[in-house]
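tool_log.txt
---
The assistant was asked to compare two proteins side by side. It first ran the structure predictor on the initial sequence, then on the second. Raw inputs and outputs are pasted verbatim so the downstream comparison step can read them without reformatting.
(1)
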Amino acid sequence: MKLAVFDFDSTLMDGETIDFLAAQLGFEEQVAAITHEAMEGRLDFFNALQQRVKLLKGLEMSSVDEICKSLPLINGAKDTIDGLKNRGYTVVCFSGGFRNATAPASEYLGIDADFSNTLYDIDGVLTGEVGGEMMFGSSKGELLTRLQSLLGIEIKNTVAIGDGANDLSMFVYAGTKIAFCAKPILREAATHCIDIKDLRKVLEIVDSI
């Protein structure tokens, strides 16, 4: 068996989900600045996530869902997922973002499972709090090892694709580590780099290994 694990924001999706949400409240620049520092590895991911989500307090969940259903996917995303599954890969998505975004995208793309975080609301209005499976910089690596054990998949048969510092932990447990239009800190840990926004390059890499 083979496993391919994708980050969501700026990997499967063209942008950062939280930036799209923050724009509704006028906090896009503030949130984007925190996101940039976290993805470069200069801010602790957990603290950066909490800081950003607090700025979403008061946003209606109906608006969140509407925005998340129309997020732009990276060029070639559907073809790449289909191609990997045709090559015998189980495909999953790990995201430090939110299930409001990963669930509809994963359903459309045919991804086998998605793991992300939950935005809390009261009476349909965001509280500014978040919890879930991907809260820490170490979360992706920890969950990847559990999936490998559950599915009986070795590191050498695991491909990880991401763009930022919080993808480092899953790179540790992947034989093929693909940095996709990535920050320098992730490129340094990668076995392969893709520098154009076309995920179909992933298929060229897996066909060469």
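(2)
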Amino acid sequence: MFTGIVRAVGEIVKTTPINKEDQQAGLRLTVDAAGLDLSRVQVGDSIAIQGACMTVLRHAEGKFEVDVSQESLSRTAGLDRLGPVNLEAAMRLGDTLDGHMVLGHVDGVGEITAFKPVGESYLLQIKAPKHCAKYLAFKGSVTINGVSLTINEVVDSADGCTISINLIPHTVAETTFQYAQVGDPVNIEVDTIARYVERMLQKTST
């Protein structure tokens, strides 16, 4: 489990096919952890990369490796190429929950439709796919590329919805949002509680 509080902006510095003879085998990523403290990370531990939970295979000299299946690559954005990524190590017993409960399970890929300064902050708008839309609510929590955020507005459409989020300068500076551009794909994880509420309502109505 994670909190959605990014601890470092690292960088995917190498991607290697897990099996060059099998195009469905996925990729092995080498990630420069930058400011993420790896001293407490062991092989088998989880690290969220752009909001997707991955298992550490090995680490040394400030870098770590993970394997990403083709299934995960097909359902996420930003894990198939070199570049900056948000990093967060898994919570430990006794850690504070500063964001919200994040599982590192990407529910869908959205698209940035607006990103611009407004006053002292930034307006971020994201078009979310239809299967995610029903879980997104005004003042509800959402995880975008591993960052815990609060939704300020939801505008529904036939093919999903557009959510508006206010970003303070600190959040932009300390995450990959500093590189964000309109048209960029983003990983979306909806609030875990919303998923359970839907399931309970389904069982109640049957």
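---
observation on (2): The CA atoms of residues 109 and 187 lie 5 Å apart. The chain is about 15% helix and 45% strand.
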